[in-house]
Amino acid sequence: MIYDVAVIGAGVIGSAIARELMKYKLKVVVLEKANDVSCGASKANSGIVHGGFDPQPNTLKAKLNVEGVEKLFDAAKLLNVPIKRNGSLVCAFSEEETKTVEELYNRGILNGVEGMKILTGDEARAIEKNLSKEVVSALLITNAGIVCPYELTIACMGNAMDNGAELKLKFEVQKIEKEKDLFTIESKEGDKVQSRYVINSAGGASASTAALVGDNSYGIIPRAGEYLLLDKKEGARVSHTIFQVPTKDGKGILVSPTVDGNLLLGPTATVVSSPEDTYTTKEGMDKVIKLASKSVTGIDLRSVITSFCGVRATGVSDDFIIEESKKVKGMINLVGIDSPGLSSTFAIAEYTVDILKGLEELTPNPDFNPEREDPHFFRKMTDSEKDAYIKEHSDYGKIVCRCERVSEGEIKDAMKRNPVPHDLDGVKRRTRSSMGRCQGGFCTPYIMKLLAEDSLESVTKKGKESKMLTGKL
Fold it and tell me: Each residue of 271-295: pLDDT tens digit?
């Protein structure tokens, strides 16, 4: 089959682009090197919907961030993705930092951000009782929010697939050739896909992917961010997302609730050699703890249940680059989509497809369905509604993950829904099973049993050689 468009990368941006493309009569395929969608920066970021005050005015980053906020809230509702408009506070700890807060406020005004206000330290503590007494002022941004980034990615790809898009996993692009008006894309394993257009949304590999067709005009700086995630008993420590004033390396260490009720601390911003360098370090964890404790008092660090690291693809230009390659017609490159990329997701998707519209006329798809069924309908039921549902669907009456109260029925349902999971982490991202206090200590063996097609030895944590079992004794 010859596709109209091949999208490289199934992170949140690539998945949203695939969904946007399905609004038109197009044959679309998404190529992803991992065993699942959302396996790069999209699964390991802060999940913050940034209000739009931070990007420099008159940049693409500022434009798409401000446009993207409401588009994200609207899309999340259609896709049944957890999202909350909790607002954020950018805290200053000195008069010098207060000047920065004022600059951010003025920058937000220029960018068209509404709902901002500069507070005194006491005014900030009046709405956040655990805020440090050292805070002397803060910028309140009421339109900011929090979202689950991996659920958003899964929902976008699922909706795209439900509307006809194809997804090819374990397809690591190694070679791209163009002959006349047709691209041939080859994986490391030798599989080939042909398409008339290519959209390069490969995140940390976007510059190297562009280089496969001889376009060496892009550069990426991989910047690692380490996080600590705390148990839900700490989830109400703050209600807003708490920032410190940003530096040249990013928005700094934050303290934020998550949409699922946990507390998140981080990230660091360390330049690493590769987007694959997702290890955590003692130095990074110490920095997260020190700076998070500077903003918010009383954090119970005994409640940390896991740590993780994500690598964002910072561009050398400090702005989003979304354009048709100047060297190869028909290839659209997205490079340097770091923060606020998540907040800009649906604005970026529309902007990218608009570039494609400039290359040829697209025919609207009257059958496109923008909505996705709620994968978490069961947990939202009342006890009496659950009792009635369990009588008809007995698998929902068996709790597999005790920490997150996830039933066998929910896991089995997730295993049939686009895009289907193929490993333990895939089930985890879709159902929250093993995301609780015990981190899978009780439920992992049973989920392995549900996943096993031939034998338990076939089950992996995240694909490739990450086998949970190596054999029988």
Answer: 999 999 999 999 999 999 999 999 9
Question: What pLDDT, in 10s, does the model give residues 137-194?
Answer: 999 999 999 999 999 999 999 999 999 999 999 999 999 999 999 999 999 999 999 9
Q: Which residues are catalytic?
A: 50
Residue 372, token pair as written in the block: 């996705």
Residue 386, C-beta contacts closer than 8 angstroms, at least 6 positions apart: 378, 396
State the amino acid at position 286 in one-letter form.
D
To which residue do tokens 């879709």 refer?
430
List of the chain residues with pLDDT < 50: none
Residue 249 and residue 270 in contact, taking contact as beta carbons nearer than 8 Å: no
Question: How many angstroms separate the CA atoms of 394 and 407, rounded?
Answer: 10
d(CA 341, CA 61): 8
Distance CA 118, CA 458 (A): 56
3-state secondary structure the chain: CEEEEEEECCCHHHHHHHHHHCCECCCEEEECCCCCCCCCHHHCCCCEECCCCCCCCCCHHHHHHHHHHHHHHHHHHHHCCCEECCCEEEEECCHHHHHHHHHHHHHHHHHCCCCEEEEEHHHHHHHCCCECCCCCEEEEECCCEEECHHHHHHHHHHHHHHCCCEEECCCCEEEEEEECCEEEEEECCCCEEEEEEEEECCHHHHHHHHHCCCCCCCCEEEEEEEEEEECHHHCCCCCCEEEECCECCECCCEEEECCCCCEEEECCCEECCCCCCCCCCHHHHHHHHHHHHHHECCCCHHHEEEEEEEEEEEECCCCCEEEECCCCCCEEEEECCCCCCCCCHHHHHHHHHHHHHCCCCCCECCCCCCCCCCCCCHHHCCHHHHHHHHHHCHHHHCEEECCCCEEHHHHHHHCCCCCCCCCHHHHHHHHCCCCCCCCCCCCHHHHHHHHCCCCHHHCECCCCCCECCCCCC
CB 312 within 8 A of CB 340: no
Token pair listed for 250? 């990013």
CB 272 within 8 A of CB 224: yes
Phi-psi region of 47 (alpha: psi -120 to 50; beta: other; left: phi over 0): left
Handedness of CA 252, 257, 259, 260 (dihedral sign): positive
Residue with tokens 């079992």: 469
Residue 348: CA atoms inside 13 Å, Cβ hemisphere, count? 33
Taking Cα atoms as reference points, which of 194, 458, 204 lies closest to residue 314?
A: 204
